[in-house]
Amino acid sequence: MRFLTLIAFLTLGGLGLTACQNKPKAPEPPIANMQTLRTIDTGDIVGSITPQAGAYQWAAIPYAAPPVGELRWRAPRPAAPWEGIKETLNPGVRCVQRARSADVYDDLGALVGNEDCLVLNIWSPALAKDALPSGDARLPVMFFIHGGSNVWGYGGQYDGQYLATRHNVILVSINYRLGPFGWFAHKALRETALSGPDQSPNFANFDMIEALQWVKRNISSFGGNPDRVTIFGESAGGHDVATLIALPRAQGLFHGAIIQSGYFTSHTMETAENGVPKGSGWAYKGARALVGNLNPPADLNAPDMAAFLRDASAKDVYIAAQEDDGSAENGSAEPGSPLIIADGILLKADSLEAALDNPGFDIVPVITGTNRDETKLFNVTNPKLVKKFLGFLPRPQDANQYALQAEYESAMWRARSVDTQARRLKANGPSDLYAYRFDWDEEGSVLGTDFSLLLGAGHAMELPFVFNGFATFPVGGGKIFPKDTAQERDVLSRTMMSYWAAFATHGKPGRGMDGTLPNWQQWGAGADRLIVLDTVAGGGVRMSTEEISVDSVLSDLDQDGRFKSFQEKCLAFLGVKGWFPEIRAQVDKIKHVDCKL
Questions:
Q1: What is the pLDDT of residues 146-181, one digit of tens each?
Q2: Within 10 A of 228 (CB to CB), how many other CB atoms are there?
Q3: pLDDT at res. 403
């Protein structure tokens, strides 16, 4: 299963609309400004001031020691202090990954980044050091975890200056170890661990906890309130937020959570070690196959095997973990998407969902939501659904089939990530729970290629709305976000930013920061279930009473008469089952569905 972020994909080059593109020169780093001088527990730092919004920005602050050498595949250690003033200006620091089409300063598919990457970025309103708020006047903190299948992306891709300055919050984004460096279950590492946390294969989840602990210790130095921290993340980052909600070790480090297009699936130790075969939906090579690809000497004992693995180059580890076919751009030359591993240490329950069934503590207020057309982002490259006009312009093979397939796949994503989890959380405590569906689909077109049909309210499309990221959108932004829809688009963006900030500030989205928006009711407040986020032209922002389930989506698909043939409906069933392998048994109960396309 592939979860790319929109900014990694929706460039003109990512959609195949340009044959080639000169690699631009990387911009110069911002200039240090002594007005941003701050003291944290490891020393003095200085950042910069953004020219657009006048926000204070600090980039690539180390929150943990570099996880290299003997610290590779161990829980994070504290960052070392430094002498003098450290300039924190480079938002481009990233962990080991392959460059995607949004990485316009790198060669597509090149292995970039390094293991010394455990840093975070901070944006704040322009607050003088001698006039920082204190006590209850300190500002709410919004802590963002990026998406990218847990194999790609970095915190510096996201610009927090507008949320920070418009709504008087502190915005933090983080890096965490990716792919095989972040999740790796091998017995030699467990048998030679130096501590209990080191025995866990969930190194990246410990990174996130370490970053939250850093925030708790240091965010007051930026005017932030460590007792009012909201974690939020999209796609794989949404999965990581859902994971943190369930982990006892993370409790007390955050006070609200927003899950954007997340998922609640997890690995067992068995699947983490032995892998998941292709065709099962969550293809994952597993630790045994990775080690086998590194060709270790025969019969190594645990200490020697651990030393062999830590001596291997980052490049060799990455290549040993990646899938065996395809290209870097479509993701198949990368490692399979890691998931939280039920290890008995960090995640003690049998699965992430089981942990949420019986957490043993009160769940913080939660927002969870999906986009109406999630899977269109992925289906736009599926040759069974899309053809290339003139060799480069994507067009649906059949517009009706294309729309229906995405409708049911995306409804199942919502059923699994929103409605099912809302019922679960409501059944297990007094959790304040809010849900949304993002419906904006007013994209433009290029030479007859209709992005509104091809992408619609696709996966990650909400991100530029939450961050006001339209002006800095990668190549193709003018086509995805045309000028003639900009006014309503910007109103919706401001609405969403206001709801997100109100949740971070007050623990509920309510009527937004200024109290003028439609009231976002809790899930189950009367007949209400979720809020629909759209422009006036699309029906506006409104509460909906609709509630769905895995069974209701499958039943609706089974009975839907809009498909032109059994083969078309069969393709939709296969799509739903392929995306969500955990529901295969429910799909297979529909006896007359015998799809072998």
A1: 999 999 999 999 999 999 999 999 999 999 999 999
A2: 22
A3: 97
- The answer to whether the beta carbons of residues 544 and 415 sit under 8 Å apart is no
pLDDT of 1 strictly over 50: no
**Rounded Cα–Cα distance for residues 499 and 497 (Å):** 6
Percent of the chain with pLDDT over 90: 79
User: How far apart are the C-alpha atoms of 330 and 103, rounded to whole Å?
Assistant: 14
What residue segments make up the domains of the chain, in order of their start? Answer: 1-30+365-597, 35-101+116-267+340-351
Residue 347 phi, psi dihedral angles, 5° rounding: -110, 100
Longest Cα–Cα distance in the chain: 72
Distance of CA 289 to the CA centre of its chain: 26
Q: In sequence order, which residues have a C-beta less than 8 Å from that of residue 97 and are 6 or more positions away?
A: 111, 112, 113, 148, 151, 152, 153, 154, 178, 179, 334
Q: For residue 512, which of 488, 486, 541, 540 has the smallest C-alpha distance?
A: 541
DSSP run (H or E) holding 55: none
Structure tokens at 354: 């089981």
- Whether the Cβ atoms of residue 40 and residue 62 lie closer than 8 Å to each other: no
Residue in this structure with the two tokens 């180059």, named with its chain if needed: 313
The pLDDT tens digits for 399-441 are 999 999 999 999 999 999 999 999 999 987 767 999 999 999 9
Structure tokens at 130: 């001698």
Identity at 576, one-letter amino acid code:
V
Cα torsion 117, 229, 4, 100: sign: negative
Name the β-bridge partners of 61. Answer: 120
Alpha carbon 252 to chain centroid distance?
22
Q: Is the pLDDT of residue 330 over 80?
A: no
Instruction: Write out the E strands in 2-138.
Output: 38-40, 43-46, 48-49, 56-62, 85-87, 97-98, 111-112, 119-124
pTM to 2 decimal places = 0.95
**Which whole number is the average pLDDT over 16-32?**
69
| pLDDT 10s digits, 514-560 | 999 999 999 998 999 999 999 999 999 999 999 999 999 999 999 99
CATH number of 35-101+116-267+340-351: 3.40.50.1820
